[in-house]
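As agreed, record passed on underneath.
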Amino acid sequence: MPKMKAKHILIVGDLMLDKYIYGSSSRKSPEANVPVVLQEKTMSTIGGAGNVASTISNFGYQCTLLACIGDDSDGVELSKLIQQTSINGVFLKESNRPTTAKKRIIVNQTHQLRVDHEKSEDLEVETIEKICHHFESVIAHEEVSFVIFQDYNKGVLNEKTIKFCTQILHSKKIPFAVDPKVKNYRSYCNAAIFKPNRNEFLTSLGLTQISIAEIAKNASTLRKEMNIEIVVVTLGESGIFIQNRDKSILIDGYKHDSIDVCGAGDAVLALLVDAYCNGDQLEEMGAKANLAGFMSCLKVGVHPLIQEEFANSWRNVQEDIKIKYV
């Protein structure tokens, strides 16, 4: 794969505020059969499409993030967090729509509970038109070399915005990657990288179980029908499947006693794009993405990858990577 001169990456999708309450518990509540948590600290981080943008920025790319927030305190906090990074944030506000926020309760270093505050319906028509306008403007006036769509089914990426944006990219021959949800699964034709997880892949096929051989067969059909360059299916601890027109590859996963999958998909998507832009071979793309997902799972909560940490881990694992051609 030839190396791209990717300097500016545009991320479009569902932005979230990830909030954490850390504490300890040693007794049950007298009011109900639930633990009493003694709060020790709180923390907020950038999540969703913002987590992808954070890793992309950490890996040295100029990064623009186009998303929607609510006119609320969570939106203010999220904006301030992004202002502390090198990400260029372009945010549309909807007054009757809350900023998507996920509050996680971490007790004795274990993720016990998550409380979501969100509205998942499509954006208002006026906001959709503004998203499309800003997308067209960034593409027209900035030297964007790659676009990432991070779809969490929270309303930013809908039938109209996807069609509008992907048609522009196709006409200008700008490659894009997508982490799709089932609702918009077949809307992302002409993608350079199409990355569902195992459950999304199964749901799209109406199945509950699938073999690796069947994944390869159905990925090939999907790739041809939607004109996709590379299909990637993440398989959790079982690893990662990656396919282009020339080959299908299964890369074994990593085993660990403590796994927190929060943000793992974001890490995988970001490293797939980084590897693609660097001209890596399919084997290396898959292996780097597989490692990225595992590294994300080793930390409690959502955290972007740091380039130096990833480079050190990559050097340490290369000889142990197990690749199978399907």
